[in-house]
Amino acid sequence: MAFTLAPTAALQGYRLDVLDTVGSTNAVALERALAGEAAPLWIVSDNQVAGRGRRGRVWQAPRGNLAASLLLRPAVALPEAATLGFVAGLAIVEALEAVAPRARFELKWPNDVLGNRCKLVGILLESVALPGGGYALAVGIGVNVVGHPTDTPYPATNLRALGANCGAAELFLALSDAWTQAHALWRDGRGLGEIRARWLKRAAGLGSPVSVRTENRLVEGLFETIDEECRLVIREHDGTIARIAAGDVHFGVAATARSNT
């Protein structure tokens, strides 16, 4: 099956560029933006050889996995546009549920999707200032379809290992459809409350012990919710409420040990 846009996406003006091999779909999206490319544009490949993860990490992806980046020029301030990561999370989970209904998918704050409690999807937002003013945003989504790395701090998996029989192109078709619906719900941030509510229904580790390594310290306690700004809310052991904007998250009784590795 070749990569194609869902009819709903095409009708809303989304375009698609399919690359046989790419270094990083996010990098290509931002380069296109600087060259004057119009948005919204999906850039996809099933062979990404130099993918990027959070905090400069490498995103490993064998041929057959899905690498997709959506180039946008949001009309809102960059801090508001950052919540599109939660829109992307909802969209990819709904796409996964459509193609692999027997597996269990959860959203792991801030930007991962778990399949049967193992990392399946990574989401990375990157932006660039445009010469004429404003900025462009690349919403990168990488999915382990046929393979996954083994040397990761958090257990990983892939759709084939979960028993799904879909390919990257079939998954992208479902994703491009699910994105249009989730993005319409977001409404330039005005619908973030509904996005947050839907995200929490699929949240991994809600109510369980959590450990978060931030730039300044290790925060431990119970994962209570995400707040109106989509920050992670933790009730620490002494009852203090901590609101975390960024950090590496580990759940369960081994959370502290894992966060120190």
UniProtKB/TrEMBL annotation:
Assigned EC number: 6.3.4.15
Keywords per UniProt: Ligase
Keyword Ligase: yes
Domain of life: Bacteria
Identification of the protein by name: Biotin--[acetyl-CoA-carboxylase] ligase
Species in which this protein is naturally found: Antarcticirhabdus aurantiaca
